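Backbone shapes recur. Consider a single case.
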Amino acid sequence: MIWAYSDGSQTLAQHLPTNKGSLSVDYSCPSFSGSSGGNNGSSGGNSGSGGSSNSSSGSSGGNSSGSGGSSGSSSQANGSGCQPSSLPGYTCSVQLSKNAYTLHWAVNKDSTVSMAAQVATTGFVGIGFSKDGKMTNSDAAIGNVPPGALANGAAVGAYYLGGRDVGSVQPTDTWSVTNTSVTTSNGYTTMVFTRSMGTGHVPIDASAPTTIIWAYSPDGSTALAYHASNFGSASIDFVKGTSTAGQGSSTAAYIAHGVLLALAFALLMPLAILLARLLLADRPHGALLNLNSGKDLRPLGFQLHRGIQLSALVVAVAGMIVIFVQAGSKGLSWTHGQVGLAAVILALLQAVVGFIRPDKTAPNRFKWLVAHCVIGATTIALAWTAMFLGIDLYHTKFMENVTWCYWVTGICVSMFGFMYLLLVIPDSILSSMKPKEHKIAGKGGTAGGV
């Protein structure tokens, strides 16, 4: 049993966090065990929304509307392996986003599921059902939007998500929500509804996990708008009560991946190539800085070229590890991932080729040089292609404005290309830049030595 009492007011309202508790009573014998107010008891709701000060207020909305959400059909004996819900009328719960989004549910005997989403926002709340964890071609229940924003004027509406933009969020009649309510208190919004398991574009599977997606307002506004980074996905077996968190809303790993790979392929590797052209005289067209220099800069050029290239390779591998930890092998399902992986593999191969460099006098030196140049050029081309694909993928995935990324990357690529062309101008032009030697009759020397 659960208990609560007022702070003195006779108006039925939210009880104080300390004015509540729970008891386990065996009425056939004079013994019982209980939990006092404020603990993680069945009525406390402290674990429901990730914070005792806010969760009890969130539970208030869930309590009043949760019982309505599952009225008319008794809950099945399910969820034996789930995290118990802190809301009366619900069996299981899962925290989709720490301290921000908790979903409670109960499967009813009439093959419906009653749900309550407790979210740390005063704006709109959405919970969707997806085939692949993406918005497009998914169903979603959305609530706490302005009057008239929902087709039926209800607190919660059923939608079909035809795409990723707000205009693609359309009311649908392929499934419906009943027993709906939305309450907001102390910064938390609780959205309650019941839906049938077998209807909609994406029905709830009674025998296997269902992929759900979730989102909520980024700024507390009830206007239906872009959710920014407040979204994610999970896999939930509503009958068994088990759940597996999916991709969250954090963009940190994706940003780190992009920064590391851009540093490797847009800065370090091009710099190493330019230094090789400037300082290594055994390149096909000579070395520019050696033309008028009294010093042999080739040893320095070689050390700089090799050191920077190896540094770039370490940075690139680190960037691949970051994204693999975040997304696993799913990243290879995108063209960006496939092209990027090919670029990193070629960069590793280039390092191996560099270490087996034959001596300058070896007959196969020229063939090695050609292979080294071809592998390097192919690596850079693939890496730059992957960078632009990655920027586009990030925009598609997180719907953020990345125009500046296109500009920065385009400028870097253009500058490198322009400088590289200047360093591979024909031998005849390079030769004309060398100090000319004028023979002095009878001396066999040069004009400079006179």
